[in-house]
Structure formats: structure tokens, C-alpha cells
Here is the input.
Amino acid sequence: MTTAVNDLLEAHPAPAEVDRGALAACIEECMACAQACTACADACLAEQEVGTLRRCIRTDADCADLCETTGRVLSRQATVDIDVAGAVLRACAAACSACAQECEQHASMHTHCRLCAERCRTCEAACRRLLDSLADG
Amino acid sequence: MTTAVNDLLEAHPAPAEVDRGALAACIEECMACAQACTACADACLAEQEVGTLRRCIRTDADCADLCETTGRVLSRQATVDIDVAGAVLRACAAACSACAQECEQHASMHTHCRLCAERCRTCEAACRRLLDSLADG
Amino acid sequence: MTTAVNDLLEAHPAPAEVDRGALAACIEECMACAQACTACADACLAEQEVGTLRRCIRTDADCADLCETTGRVLSRQATVDIDVAGAVLRACAAACSACAQECEQHASMHTHCRLCAERCRTCEAACRRLLDSLADG
Amino acid sequence: MTTAVNDLLEAHPAPAEVDRGALAACIEECMACAQACTACADACLAEQEVGTLRRCIRTDADCADLCETTGRVLSRQATVDIDVAGAVLRACAAACSACAQECEQHASMHTHCRLCAERCRTCEAACRRLLDSLADG
Here is the structure.
């Protein structure tokens, strides 16, 4: 999908002055992480021991919302506001970190938690990389 | 990304009794289409002749919202409600169709509209295929 | 809040040719219902007998997503597409109906389910009223 | 609407240990602000001088997304993560501030920009009040 996201970023008449590769990667990871979190929450809900997965379902829901919103904000390249973009990326990284930490505790029991934790860690890293490149810019 | 979406669908303890391939493809297309629509709306907004792209920006916004919601609803496999799933898919297909029709009129002028129109048509087709498989199920 | 929603609808330079009162009411109910569903899902998740509330948490999540998207689409008055608006309203009404039906079964046990069921029924009615007025238009 | 939001917060079996009034007010303002931003963006898009309102449409879109996500995260009282809640509130306040600043420049020309700017300022204040109360807690 990187190609599709990249192609659209490049077709913009006034592209953002940021590291294009870091931007495309972060948008992509946000989308993939949002989907993984929604799917993981629903899978947790269907597990027999749902009572031990309450916190996981909650962090999944927050993380899905943050990732989706971050992917949207980053997809808008015109007139980027660095303050807003930075704050959104920090919030997304915080949600990914909290969700990964929780999912990792169930990773050995549930494949969906393991897959979701991996996505959260990758997305958190992509957010931090883009944050670094914004700070350098 | 199909792999990631598929892996999560398969990790569900009580997977939906639907055509798994059609489901994964539809979720994936909804995500890609939502991103394309958000990016296209922002690119349209930055074009000099923004005045002729008002309808495009609006259909992009509706389509992004519908695709995102449809991707979420479909990612929840537990206790699927066929009435709701069907109505959501029909609404998503309608939004994709309206957006594609509008974007196609600007496709020769703007690469982002051409790319977005293609995504909308692919997503519309994926929604209809899943609708057909729900009707057969 | 009706006042706020109404004031903004009236400030639009090219307002939609629909029953303004029905439109404002529907937007408002969608927002209130989305919030109620998110809050109810989280409250269900914290109940001791979460195992019996799985379906409720799921229908809450779908309904919150549909209501939010419907509120957004309806808030965009320029160049309304009746096909899309109609399909979205039908999907929202279906999600509200499914969620109300589920919440009503727990209404005597849980105040949050009772409050949420009431919101869902009111929102469903507002969607159907607006659908009727679109058909007459 | 405060009543409705409050009633649901109170019906939660394990309510968050935060200032309930500040929480309810913030959720409510997030919802109202999200709707105002979506309506303002669409109204801007329909104005003749849309070319001068590009930045306004963009900040509206970001602010709507952030407010909606913040309203959702705050509506989930179980197992609150202060780090995530704080980061989300800061991101929302930043988006509200940026949007208010932009809308205020068009407030004398367009009623929708004036109404939206007011909502953004109120929402920003509600986010900061809740942030303060979290820091005290």
C-alpha cells in the first residue's frame, strides 16, 4: 500500500515540506494499526476469559480512534500546523505504547493480541520517527 | 496488507460465517479508499481552481467517513448483524459511486482525482461482492 | 444544543433544501446517540457479568460509528446527494434499531443500557423522519 | 445535553476518579465543537471566495477529527490512562486553538466562522480545565 499512499502524496499540488518517506510510512502504519486494534478488541470480546481482557479492549478502542485521526490529519498536506501535527503524533504514540504494553501481556495466549502489539509498536516507532523529522525541519 | 488483515481475521475465536477473502478485501479497500479520499480532498483544496472542485471535496469527505466506518464495522466479526452489515455496505457503495463519478470528471486534469476515482471504484466493487456473498450465505 | 446546530445550519450560504427542523434534530440525535453508545460500551465492559454483555458492547460500537458518520454527512449541506444521504440514514436507523433491541434486554439491570436504548430509539425515529421528508422533497 | 452526558457518566459501575463536572463539560464541548467544525468547513466550501478560506476548511477538518476522538476517549471511564488522556487533551486543545485563530479572521464576514470560533475557544478552555484537574488528581 505504500505505493498508493505515496502516489497520492506526490500528486498534491502543494506537498508538505516534511520527509516524504517518514510521512507515508506513518500514515500507512496508522491505518494498519487502527484496523488491528478494532479487530483485536472484537476478538478479545469473543474470548471466553473476556473478564481478563477488559483493559485490552479499552486500550484497543482508544488506540484505534487515535490512529485513525492521526492518519487523517497527516493525509492533509496543505497548510500543515506543526504544533497540531506534533501534539497529534505524541498522542498517537502514547496510545500505541499503552495498547502495545497491554496486548503484550496476552500475546502468548492470543494471536490477535500478539499481532496487535506488533502493529502498535511499529506505529509508535513511525510516529516518533516523523516527530523527529518535524523537529529537524 | 491483505496478509495483516487476513491474519487478524483468522486469529478471531469466533470468526464470522462469511466469505473470508471477500471480507478481508473489503476491509482493505475501505481503508485505502478512506485515505485516498482524505488526501484527494486536501489536494483539491490546494488547487488553484478550487471553485470547480467544491463538489469533489464534499463527496471525498462523505466517502472517507463512510469507508472508515464500514471498515470498522466489518472488522468486528463477533455476532454479525446481517441487516446492519448490509445497510452499511449499501451506504458505502453509494458513497464510493458518487465520489468516483465526481472524481472521474477531474481525472484528466488532476492525478489525485484519477487515483481517488480508481480507489472508489475498486472499493465499490468490493462492497458489492461482499453484499452478494452475504445474500448467498 | 438544538440552537447551536440550527444556528450553524442557518449560517450556510447554500442551505440544503430539506426540512430544516428534521435535519437539525437528526444531527443532534446522532451526536447524543454516538456518545451514549460509547459510554454504554465502556460501562458494560466494567460490569461484573461482562460475559453476558458481549453483544451489547458490539452493537454499541457499531452504532456509535454509524451515528458519528451520519451526523457528519448530514452536517454537510452543500451539494447533497439524496442517494447517499438516504442510504446513510437507513444504515444508521438499522444500527440504532439493533442496538436498542439489545440494550433493552439489559435495561432493567443496567441504567446505562436503559439510557442508551432510549437514545437509540429517539435517534432511529429522527433518522426515519428525515428519510420521510427526503422522500417527500 | 449536559444532563444526558452526566447521567451516563454516573451510571458507570467504575467511574473515573476525575472531576465529574469538568469531564462532562469537556465531552459535551468536544461533540458540539466537532459538529460546528464540520458544518463550518462545508459552509466555507460553499462561499464564493472559497479561495481565501482554504486554511479555514483544513483547520476545521483537523479540529473535527480531534474533537470527535477526544470525546470518545473521555467517554471511556474504565481504566483511564492519564498519559494517553493528557496527550489527547493537549492535541485537542492545540487543534481548537489553531482553528479558532483561523476562524476568528473570517468572523466578521461569515457567521459560521464566528460561531465556530466561539465553539473552538469554549472547547479549548474545557480541555485545559480538565487537564488542570488531571494534574491535580
In short: Chain B is about 80% helix and 0% strand. Residues 18-136 of chain B form a domain with the Substrate Binding Domain Of Dnak; Chain:A; Domain 2 fold (CATH 1.20.1270.360). Chain B has one domain: 18-136. Residues 10 and 110 of chain B are 39 Å apart (CA to CA).
